[in-house]
Amino acid sequence: MCLAVPGRVLGVEERDGTRMATVDFGGVVKEVCLEYLPDLKVGEYAIVHVGFALQRLDEESARRTLELFENLGMLQEEFGDPWEQAEQAEQAARAARPEAGEARR
Predict the structure, then answer these.
(1) What are the residues whose beta carbons fall under 8 Å from the beta carbon of 43, sequence distance 6 or more?
(2) Where are the domains of the chain?
(3) Domain 5-97, what architecture?
(4) Strand 5-15 relative to strand 52-57: parallel, antiparallel, unpaired?
(5) Exposed, middle or buried: residue 79 (CB in 10 Å: 0-12, 13-18, 19+)?
(6) C-alpha 68: how far from its chain's center?
(7) pLDDT in tens, 17-76
(8) pLDDT of amino acid 48
């Protein structure tokens, strides 16, 4: 799933002619392109989708949305390590399968 997630701008810099920001998504920090919001400043919040800041957001709305996503486990799903997630899914699938010997009984 690809969510549009609110994040707080921690820093802004220009790289090869492109404004980029370091953004905090409730504890997960990622690099984000500011081409659609070139005047976004440190401390402001924005909705980010696939690495692009798309729309400014007030702090209250951002915090409520991040809290909701966290409670639903959506932040881990969106930002978690894909290898770790695959391993957890495999372990859950193994745990759900009956053992070969038990299935024959």
Answers:
(1) 8, 9
(2) 5-97
(3) Roll (2.30)
(4) unpaired
(5) middle
(6) 13
(7) 999 999 998 888 899 999 999 999 999 999 999 899 999 999 999 989 888 877 877 666
(8) 93
